[in-house]
Sequence to fold (282 residues):
Amino acid sequence: MTATYPPATPIWCAGCGHFGVQAVMLAAMRDLGIPAHEVMVLAGIGCSGTIQNNLGTYGYHALHGRVLPTATGVHLANPDLTVIATGGDGDGYAIGMGHLVHTFRRNPSFTYVIMNNGVYGLTKGQNSPTYQSEGAALDFDAVSLGLSISSTTFVARGFARWTDQLHRLTVAALEHARAGRGFAFLEVLSPCVTYNDTYPVWEATLDDLDARESYDPSSRAGAFSAVSELADEGRMAVGLIYRNGARANGELARPAAEDVRPDRHAAAYADLMATFRVRSGD
Ligand SMILES: Cc1ncc(C[n+]2csc(CCOP(=O)(O)OP(=O)(O)O)c2C)c(N)n1
Ligand code: SF4
Fold:
């Protein structure tokens, strides 16, 4: 893989939060001793998704908004791989939103690192569903969405500038998914310095739940009330917000290996394509 596609130099603007995400992801893989050939990083479309170009792991750029069903397929085909889906808020919270809801619901054991900057960076700064013209709290909050789905097992949020905490959260997310405990959702507040520089407002208003001694991340109700109370104050929670360590990933049945062998289906696929060709020529 790396002989054919050597890791690229990031294309990001100087100061983009995505640099922090990449540095931490590499450090987490190193600290957990996961070799690159046992990892597949899938990416949505966006500046954030180009993270996959920069890594020496297996990689796949999915269609815009389709990184989660694609990652689910990879996980089903080879559960021994450490699967990491990545992308931006435009990719995951707009065109990909339906998939996010159902990935929480299905709870497959892979990690999703979503870089939230409130804009579509790659297409030059249009507002995304999490764009805030004022204040720091989000009108749409994927953390609350995840908490509202009963099969959710892991919800965390980090800030690209607070790399120590982000490193701990990334390690925890990878450990959760690798242990087969389900979908590890990690939102990273990752500012776009060119079109929506949210570093100052986030730095001033984020509230770190990891720093609260009494906070219990195993309580869904406690997580809900902490996140909602902060939102009412115009603030956002970061930290390990919710982790249900008891729940195993029982819902997704692995397909028989035969079902994912391309040679088994190649003839049927060719026949199907032939029928499309006849129709389009009518
Ligand atoms: C089907 C489709 N629609 C629209 C686009 C154009 N497009 C490319 S990237 C992108 C959004 C990028 O924003 P985000 O996911 O937030 O990532 P960022 O660039 O901010 O990291 C869009 C709409 C596309 N590539 N494909
Ligand atoms: S446009 Fe924004 S999101 Fe894209 S690389 Fe530059 S700072 Fe990062």
Q: What stands out?
A: The longest strand covers residues 236-243. Residues 12-13, 16, 18, 47, 117, 121-122, 192-195 surround iron/sulfur cluster (ligand 2) (CB under 6 Å). The chain has one domain: 18-250. Strands lie at 39-43, 58-61, 82-88, 111-116, 119-120, 126-127, 154-159, 184-189, 206-208, 236-243.
